[in-house]
Amino acid sequence: xxxxxxxxxxxxxxxxxYTSFIIPGIGEFSDVVWAPVSGWIMTKLYKGKPGKIAxxxxxxxxxxxxxxxxxxxxxxxxxxxxxxxxxxxxxEKT
Length: 94
Known about the structure:
- The chain crosses the membrane at residues 7-27.
- Keywords: Membrane, Transmembrane, Transmembrane helix.
- With 94 residues, this protein is mainly α.
- It has one domain (3-93).
- It is built from four helices and no strands.
- It has helices at 3-22, 26-45, 48-63, 72-93.
- Helix 1 (3-22) packs antiparallel against helix 4 and helix 2 (26-45) packs antiparallel against helix 3.
């Protein structure tokens, strides 16, 4: 999958996580459903150990009240394609 398509999907998934703030009362119930779904989606978007770790972090972030403001999908994209990509390019040059 194209890295920019992953970024767009990540922004959409982060926005879905924010919806629990929009609907008072029902919002926290939506987190009960969204937390495992978002963790599973994260493991499908990002393979291997980093994807599994990010899936657990996403699940916990969505399950705990008040942490929904953290854009975990977008942060994982940044880690994968910006920060980790620079690290790999430095390793390849040496």
